[in-house]
Amino acid sequence: MGHRFKQRFHYREDEEPDHDQYHGPAPHGTCRVQVVRSVSDWSHGVLTEKSIQTAYCKLIEEARHFVYIENQFFISNTQDKGVVVNKIAQAIVERVIRAAREGHKFKVVVVIPEVPAFSGDVTNVTAIHTILAGQYRTINRGGNSIYEEIRKAGYEPMDYIRFYHLRSYDRINSPWDSYIKKMEEISGVDFYTAQVAQSRQWIGDSWGNAGISKEVKIAEIQTNAGMGIMAQDAKKEDVKTRTIPMPESEAEAKAIVDKFEDAARQLREDSDVSDTVGQHAMQDKTFLSDEKWLGTEEEERNAYVSELLYIHAKLMIVSF
């Protein structure tokens, strides 16, 4: 069946396409493209195919100036022995040492997540510990890592290869004392009740009340801990659990949210204050110092939060 339905790339240069079967565009591109994959019996029910690894190793070997890699994981082996049979690390070591011996300028940049694989408490998750241990043994520990093998050859690995992860920042445009607290006083609706009401609005009435909880338990962080702190990062004494009744209907929920938002409109007009300043982390053409803020300087400092950017890409760029 593979040749029953043909695309233009199925025809040889000296073969005339059958236009009854193919009606694609006439122009041809200038890129040479090869499709590779990584599958095995456990993932796809076939014999192991490692054409992605083969392509990576070959391209690293042929690279002239730099190799840039983004990957969700980085577990590999520099040796021909051991439980890890991935040889990308070995290809990197061999190419770096060759560049060092020949006196050529050569760089490898690898971008991976700060914490790989799974969300949760990193102090209690065995899978995360296993992956991190594998990555450290690949990068710079255990006797046969990339850094150690390059040093054995007499060269400084940091001159040729470095590993990075990404973080970003933003500013929460809701100072507690001068804004949220006053909204509560004016509206008579507290912040967490408004949150629950908004979630009830999103649920809607399409399904009736079947399966909708009568109440919601919320981990409420005390304001002296700072609004920017996440519940899982707060100290135990800074968090208390509150039980908030769920509005019985979408209309009831909307009335609560409208009341809370109306208090905001009474307090201030903040259309000149950006909802996000995260674009400045990406070297925006404007400046963070030009961003307006309604509140005290201390509140603004407390409103900044930082979070890791999770790398899920599997990407390599090579300069020939």
Keywords:
single chain; 320 residues; alpha/beta; four-stranded mixed beta sheet; two-stranded antiparallel ribbon; 10 strands; elongated
Write structural notes for this entry.
The chain has two domains: 21-168 and 314-318, no CATH class; 189-283 and 290-302, no CATH class. The strands form four sheets. The chain has a four-stranded mixed beta sheet, covered by helices on one side. Strands 1-2 form a two-stranded antiparallel ribbon. It has 320 residues and is α/β, with parallel strands linked by helices. The protein starts with 37 loop residues before the first strand and ends with a strand. The chain has nine helices and ten strands. The longest helix is centred in the last third of the chain and has 18 residues, at 250-267. Helix 2 (51-62) packs parallel to helix 3, helix 3 (88-102) packs parallel to helix 5 and helix 6 crosses helix 8. Residues 225-232 have low confidence and may be disordered.
Number of domains: 2
The helical percent reads 25-40%
Give the uncertain stretches in residue-range form. 225-232
Estimated radius of gyration: 28 Å
How is this structure best summarized?
By secondary structure, the protein is an alpha/beta fold. It is 32% helix and 15% strand. It has nine helices and ten strands.
Topology (SSEs and partners):
Elements: E1 38-39, H1 41-44, E2 49-50, H2 51-62, E3 66-70, H3 88-102, E4 107-111, H4 126-139, H5 146-152, E5 161-164, E6 166-171, H6 176-187, H7 191-203, E7 215-221, E8 239-245, H8 250-267, H9 297-302, E9 304-309, E10 315-318
Parallel strand pairs: 3-4, 4-5
Antiparallel strand pairs: 1-2, 3-10, 6-9, 7-8
Helix pairs in contact: 2-3, 3-5, 6-8, 7-8
